[in-house]
Amino acid sequence: MGIRVGIDIGGTFTDIVAADSETGELWMRKVPSTPSNLACGAAAALMAISREVGLEDIALLSHATTVGTNALLEGKGARTALLTTEGFRDLLEIARQQRPSLYDLRARKPRPLVPRVLRREVRERVRYDGSVLRPLDREALRRELDFLRGQAVEAVAICFLHSYANPEHERLARDLAAEFLPGVYITASSDILPRFREYERLSTTVVNAYLGPLMSRYLAELSGLVEAAGVRTAFHIMQSNGGTVPLAVARRIPASTVLSGPAAGAAAAAHLCAELNLERAISLDMGGTSTDVCRIENGLPAVASGRRVAGYVVELPGVDVRCLGAGGGSILSLDRAGLPCVGPRSAGADPGPACYGQGGKLPTLTDAFLLLGRLGVSGLLGGELPLDLEAARTAMASELADPLGISVEEAAWGAVALAVANVRRAMDGLTVAAGRDPRDFVLLAAGGAGPLLACELAAELGIRRVVVPLMPGNFSAWGLLASDLRRDWVETHLLSATVEHLPQLARSFASLERQAEKWLEGCEVPPSRRVLLRCVAVRYLGQDYELDVEVPPGEIKGETLHAVLRAFHAAHEQRYGYALPEWPVEFVNLSVTAIGQLGPGRAPRLGRGEGDVRRARTGTRPVFVSLRDGFQPCPIYARDRLGEGDVVPGPAIIEQYDSTTYVPPGYQARVDSGGNLHATGASTS
Question: Which residues of 524-548 are buried (b: 16+ CB within 10 A; e: fewer)?
Fold first, then answer.
């Protein structure tokens, strides 16, 4: 298929990976992100890789974007209005009446994305079964649209009661709004999320409208820069569900990209698990600004039908990635009680950690790694970014060590231990809280900072093996190369799980599958590379929430129903500790996922090692190995000099362009044929 390229924009660096799908040859670069205009950072990454790759030879370009996420976090989306059913304008603010933090009496819900004056009510009413109780009052709608015309709105969200059952009123309002408000971005809930639960559907529609104008401008600018650079292929955008879509779909449903970057990392982890035949793994992607963790089982990332992003509900399908404000650039500080904390504030790309020497005065996790000797003053990115040890020491002393009355090394050690504890809590939520034992999993450590503390994190969780991929610092960008086209369709159909409803179930799935096939055909995916997955949300009668269960392929018949029910009971028992096989069951939502397979590229393979890793050794430096033992001489190895079968005993530092791996005492790291490091404790090797 030629050259594939993936670009992932992070808070500190923008990563790019290129791969020749025929030869398996890989190229990668990291350039500083440009927070004021992220598209410029992506264009700079293309220019950086053009030294090795002819941009005109690129056959596939995929991109993970943080534009939507940042807009929600910073409140910098479009001026948005809402058209909703009469009597429901305050639903956006009432929400579910759940406090963001159960025991924090001062916690506040996020500010509504639509001010109350721009939430306009329309006289209409559809019943839950789709029948019309009150026809749409078109004259009243015109008056509301005329009012909005004078409010300089950039986007309009339309969400009427029970429109998932009958979208006619929403579509009439959508078409009339387009006529009254030319150039305004318009989103109707029935076009992006025709499923029940009124608040979740409303919130998702509002988020989509709020992000629409900003995302459209960004993608248009990026498209222009990519074309000007000489790239002739259209590019794809990573969604929260771990698959990519063409540019036009991302413009229409920008809410589907709010976890684009973390999803790319989860896709990379799933692909690596499939390559290594790992049944269960937890991915750790610690970058400069944040840390993302995800559970991988049977080659697939865990999924979540609804997420909160910056406090706002986005109910579109997505991978279950937990994001923490703890990365290499996370600022270390003392809270009001005088206790140390890591993040969530980040030094970002500008000015960056104190040790970058770019004006940063506050200590970060990267400064802690430098003070402990895990990073060297020779710097990052193969020496392109030298590090200032004294600047790190000064920052750590003034902000943490001196106020606490401890040494800078003790402060740095404590900061790393605190970061490990924070990540462990997130991983407990993915495993223990979901009925899984973390000791049954492998830890995949990625990101620029993840391999620097992965073994300590694994020890805390009782995990026996850590895998560090070939390009950990550019792992998410690499995941873009392995991601297929993917899009989800979902509809609400409340049906009792009985044989009598199988014909209706079959008709509904057939309708969704026709839409999916039409989309894949429009994306020019050949029939041999089209995959359709069916899923049904199931619950016991009387429950309020449901579990997703895959529907086996083929004709829907009695055995299909029995298979779904068996899978549901097993999933319920695993999640909640019990099952009720004799209790009535009902189906709630039906979904179909369309996958356009890109075809596997050729994976890189290393030559055999010579049995003596001293050839990869580049020097020695003191590393702080524990509070008891302090600094010890530690050998440094160049990862690109290691071959298949080589074993590096700890304590050791393994350096490469995009990341650094710390192998603690008692561990050893073995290199496999794909260049991945497998670190195990001495007793488990």
Answer: ebeeeebebebbbbbbbeeeeebbb
Q: 685, exposed or middle or buried, with CB in 10 Å at 0-12, 13-18, 19+?
A: middle
pLDDT tens digit sequence for 71-117: 887 788 999 999 999 999 999 998 887 766 777 777 778 899 999 99
In 521-676, where do the E strands start and end? 530-540, 547-551, 585-596, 617-626, 630-638, 647-649, 652-655, 660-663, 667-671
Alpha-carbon distance 120 to 113, whole Å?
A: 14
CA geometry: angle at 274 spanning 269 and 280, to 5°?
Answer: 70
Residue-range domains of the chain with CATH: 72-217 (no CATH), 485-596 (3.30.1490)
- The β-bridge relationship of strands 652-655 and 630-638 is parallel
Q: Is the pTM of this model over 0.70?
A: yes
Residue linked to tokens 């000791």: 439
Q: Which residues of 581-611 are buried (b: 16+ CB within 10 A; e: fewer)?
A: eeeebbbbbbbbbbbbebeebeebebeebee
Instruction: Quote the mean pLDDT of the chain.
Output: 90
Looking at the chain, the whole-number percentage of residues with pLDDT higher than 70 is 96
Rounded Cα–Cα distance for residues 476 and 6 (Å): 8
Pairing of strands 280-286, 442-446: parallel
Judge contact between 46 and 55, C-beta under 8 A. Answer: yes
502-522 vs 558-576: helix crossing angle, rounded to 10:
90
Cα 444–chain centre separation: 15
pLDDT digits (tens, 9 = 90+) for 318-348: 888 888 878 888 899 998 888 888 888 888 7
3-state secondary structure 15-34: EEEEEECCCCCEEEEEEECC
Mind listing the pLDDT tens digit for each residue in 353-378? 999 988 889 999 999 999 999 999 88
Rounded to a whole number of angstroms, the distance between the first and last alpha carbons of the chain is 39
Alpha-helical segments (H) within 295-437: 365-371, 389-396, 402-404, 408-430
Q: Are 203 and 223 in contact (CB under 8 A)?
A: no
Amino acid 684: pLDDT: 45
Cα 300 off chain centre by: 14
CA neighbor of 219 nearest in space, from 190, 248, 243: 248
